[in-house]
Amino acid sequence: MKASKKHIQETLRSLNTTEIFRLYKSIYGEINRSKLYDFIRYYAPTESIAKSAYAIAYGRKPSYYSYRNWGTHGIYEPLPLQNIVNHLMEWCKDPASPYAKKPMLGHTHLYFCSPEYGHKDYNKWAALPIAGNERFCETAIRYAERYFNA
User: Fold this and answer.
1) Whole-angstrom Cα distance, residue 90 to residue 75?
2) What secondary structure does DSSP assign to 35-88, as a single string?
3) Is the model more confident about 57 or about 59?
4) Hey, where are the domains in the chain?
């Protein structure tokens, strides 16, 4: 089937996933999600529709992949301890950065705070409860001391 550019853009503007898939299948005969993504990006009448092409083509809401990380095999959500280790290693690469955070123990949680302001940092992060994770918390603090006190 042939479809005009105007008809394609009207269908994309509706953001109705079923209609977009139906239109794509009527034009190309089969659904290939990668090519559907390219199709949506090419014919998107607005920038917001172009940005939602991934969510439409792969059937995931933007919130599904916005906070996840890209690995070698696609998107993954890191485990809480893995997420803490990733942040810690990132901040230990440049401890003199104004954005670097150092792990510190509070009363109930392991916090990541500015080395300069400590617990008075308004942007501190309560990363992990101490109860049950004492060994991990102590290891993270000892690791960070090597970089922040060097």
Assistant:
1) 20
2) HHHHHHHHH-SSHHHHHTHHHHHHT--HHHHHSSEEETTEEE---HHHHHHHHH
3) 57
4) 5-75, 80-148
